[in-house]
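From the shared-data thread, chain only:
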Amino acid sequence: MRSRSHRDVFASNQAGVSLVELMIVTAVIGVVGIGMSGLFVEMSLLQAKVEQGVAFTEIRNRISQAVRSPPITAVQVGVVPAWDRTLQNAVLNPEMACLRDNTPCVSLVGGVRQWNRLTLVDSGGVVVFDGHDDTAGFNNRGVACNAFDTVAPDGTCPLSYDLRWSVTCPDGADSCVGPNIEVRATAEYSVPPQIHRGFDPNKHSFLVVRGGAVRKNEAIRLQNVEDESALGINGGEDGVGAGAGNNCKGAWKARRLNTIVMAPVNTVTLVPPTGFTLVPGVYSCQIRSPGYKISGTFLRLRSTAGDAINLRSSPSVATRWDGSTTVELVTSFTLATPTTFVVEQYCTTLPEDEPTYGSFLPENSFGRPVPDEFGSFANVVYTTVNCIRVRCVTAGCE
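Structure, as tokens:
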């Protein structure tokens, strides 16, 4: 017969549970709690991994966009693309002197590829990523920080890139002028392996290639803009060259160009009052110039230094009802050396030669001033030169 105390251990109180039942329930809750705790930890790690993957993608896009930024394609003068701004910054990127000065860049030393640190800035000159600073990094949301450290990891700044640039030369030469450029970004993570299980830097690393032979499609636009507000419609653009004033009859007269509307850095310079110099490359151009009450008028693009170029438009005749005409020259050409050009116009008749037109405003032979949408003559546009540098053709035209 069991003792009273022994029976009490297994006895059930009608108002509660036995001690054994309570112990069993407590044990089960503990096991479930441990499992749930592990699940919560795994879910937290998974969430952090997803956030870090998104952050790496955003950072990668940011860096890649800055590296790939085109050299001012349809960008106004004064707005310098991120890559051009990066290249021009001698303080942040002293290693890029060979690219800035168009001198030989070293690709190989003893057969070993040379990789230089790179600090990227955006078009406004603000640092996108400082590849020269070992502590530069990002948090899990992609926000820049300066506490990245693989030796003593800081959980608030766990992401970074080892950002470097190098050059490749034709035929595997050790150095060359105007090389192709490669930018290598190797993803880095500062948290220990046991915490960031499964992190693969190759998944977030990337390589961007820029080169002198790649397609560029750089837009260049020049204009002659004059203030005719003081003269009203009695103004007009004087030609320059053989003959007096606007007299293009039987003579080629150079048209003025005084404004660079858009152009990549170091691709075009004005040679006042009529010239402009283009760097080497393959070009496609559209040149337009007005005339007023002149007939049999031609336009030509002629080089004055550098490669020999002499391209001529088809003739244009002024309309009878208005007396205005626009001559257009659409052409393509290749330059192996920097070349200086002038745009010249020729005509066979002047206003006084055409009784149909009469002699009204003969000083406007090179274009009657046309007001803007507000009726202002403050910025009258005459000759325009629109070119696209399709690609480079020689070393050093990057």
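DSSP finds five helices and 24 strands in the chain.
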